[in-house]
Design a protein that fits this description.
By secondary structure, this protein is mostly helical. 80% of the residues lie in helices and 0% in strands. It is built from seven helices and no strands. The chain is globular and about 35 Å long.
């Protein structure tokens, strides 16, 4: 996770254009791990800038998917369901999911 976090933190320009797809894919493959990672030891507050960066890249990619310009295999609804399902029955990860998804929605709203 360390290396992808560094890429997300420092990404700009052309790299930023491809990072979103990888963020979505990684989150879809490891949703419980991701939600736990950002929640661990109140990390949702400590890692807030990183969480915002991930949410931004995910939001951009889901926006472009909706507009038909991304080849992402997940729609907004299907990706949201993957994360939501992974957060069920765990109060801490449910809260992390809500915070993350609010940031994703804000990104998409700002794209309109």
């Amino acid at each position: 996770m360390y290396h992808i976090n560094r890429i997300i933190s420092k990404s700009d320009g052309a790299l930023s254009e491809i990072v979103g797809k990888y963020c979505v894919e990684y989150f879809a493959l490891h949703p419980k791990f991701i939600l736990t990672y950002f929640n661990k030891e109140k990390a949702v507050n400590v890692k807030q800038p990183l969480l915002k960066a991930y949410a931004g890249f995910v939001g951009y990619e889901l926006y472009f998917k909706r507009e038909g310009t991304s080849k992402l295999k997940y729609s907004y609804e299907s990706f949201k369901e993957i994360l939501n399902s992974a957060s069920q029955n765990n109060k801490e990860t449910e809260e992390t999911f809500k915070v993350f998804w609010k940031l994703v929605d804000e990104t998409i709203k700002n794209m309109n």
